[in-house]
Amino acid sequence: MSKTSWSGEKFEARIKALQEGIEKKHGKTTEELLREREKRMNDAIELRVPDRVPVTMHTGVFSAKYARIPLSAMYYDHAAYKEACLQTVLDFEPDSGASMMLVSSGTALELLDVKHQRWPGYNLPADTPYQFVEEYMQPEEYDHLLSDPSDFMFRVYCPVSSGYWRR
Q1: Which 8-state DSSP code applies to residue 27?
Q2: What ranges make up the beta strands (E) of 107-153?
Q3: What pTM value is reported for the model?
């Protein structure tokens, strides 16, 4: 289990040190780097030629693999997984993206008796990527989904996929 703190004075000092390191490496403030990345992304979105091809990264399973921690950390060792995501973003410096920190709590998924997912460290081996089980929607339910998605999710899909109600 990771001992890294993600709050308090130590965390603030760590973020400040990381920011200073980034600014020293690039010779620019983090605000300047952010504006460059925003411009690069907006240029690409608006079909203008950016200064270089923008890179988007979603950390996901890659961060755990990159940091050589078990994939089960995504669900059961959030501090270690946050460290892995942070290191991935710092090393690859994407222009945009999303971190998958706190993908899910394995404990919460267990308590909810989630049936439409399998995840590492519970019902899959610790280093196997999560999986979706796609058997919780019947062909005759598609019309309901298309006509009223919210009603369908609350009344049909969620109860079945969380194990509270069985067909």
Answers
A1: T
A2: 117-118, 131-132
A3: 0.78
* pLDDT tens, position by position, 99-124: 766 668 999 999 888 888 899 999 99
Q: What is the per-residue DSSP string for 28-91?
A: S-HHHHHHHHHHHHHHHHTT---SS---EEE-HHHHHHHTT--TTHHHH-HHHHHHHHHHHHHH
Report d(CA 76, CA 64) in Å as an integer: 12
Report the length, in residues, of the chain. Answer: 167
From CA 77, how far away is CA 79, in angstroms rounded?
Answer: 6
**Alpha-carbon span 49 to 40, nearest angstrom:** 9
Domains in the chain: boundaries: 106-161
Nearest to 115 by CA among 60, 157, 71: 157
What is the number of other CB atoms lying within 10 angstroms of the CB of residue 15? 11
Count other Cβ atoms within 10 Å, centred on residue 69: 19
Q: Which residues of 95-131 are buried (b: 16+ CB within 10 A; e: fewer)?
A: beeebbbebbebeebeeeebebebbbbbbbeeebebe
